[in-house]
Amino acid sequence: MIYTLTTNPSIDYIMRIDEFTHGATLRSKASEMYPGGKGIMVSKLLKNLGDDPVNIGFLGGFTGDFIKNELEKLGIKESFTEIKGDSRINVKLKYQDETEINAEGPHIDEDEVENFFASLKEVKEDDFLVISGSLPKSLDKDFYKEVIRRISCKFTIDIANKEVLDYLKYKPVLVKPNKEELGRIFETKIETDEEIISYAKKLIELGAENVIVSLGGEGSIFVDKDRVLKASPIEGKLVNSVGAGDSMVGGFVYGLSHDLSKKDAYKLAVACGTATAFSPDIGSKEKIDEILEKVEVKESGN
Fold first, then answer.
1. How far apart (Å, rounded) are the C-alpha atoms in residues 37 and 25?
2. Does 246 participate in catalysis according to the annotation?
3. Which entry of 166, 246, 259, 289 is annotated as an active-site residue?
4. How far apart are CA 118 and CA 63, in angstroms?
5. How many CB atoms lie within 10 A of CB 293?
């Protein structure tokens, strides 16, 4: 079983406008609402692949009801801990560019945290747990560490800053920064593939089992203790950058949990991330399969 943890889920309220003008009253030409949060994005991708993931985390209020109902419509299981506060709404403006306004999130009290920790008994040793996304400010900064201490299964961690270094001693199955995030982790500017590989190897040396560094339109690089692989970019129109990285995580975890080789799991991760980038929402199984046939992965410099 694959569990996805979303401590700060949201309604992603997407508004499409012709042009953004600062200080003006703007009217959208279309709008959509989706259940959001990095763990939920991973679950949606896993469901599209045919898996049966379970969402855990915190949900509350009328916004939480919406998220829960939408997941039910998608046939995605959830075992969220109920809270008194309202789950957040994030606004995504889509025009020639993309602008996101992400809310802070609700207050979560100590009793609600303890209820969540009690629920972790559902997670068994042979499961996977995907940990990703920001923490509400009311949660202790070491909340994820306490989660890891209370589970015995394999896990991934997706944190976009140097705090991820504190988690490597727990041996995460996957760390997936993009190029800019990798630079922030090590407080440096990274430009070349050689530098990317060097710093990815540092993550491996510090405890990560696998690292995928996404390079946007330039493809991605996979590193483990034995090899370095690079996936070539796939031509297509960028429609949606939200969830592409989460889709890569979902694809890789799906591959490992279904006994694919690391190389094939990486290829699937690339196809999943690209399918989402080329789709209005999380990539469909048909789109993933179409793109998987185009994925080219080669051994890169060590």
1. 28
2. yes
3. 246
4. 24
5. 7
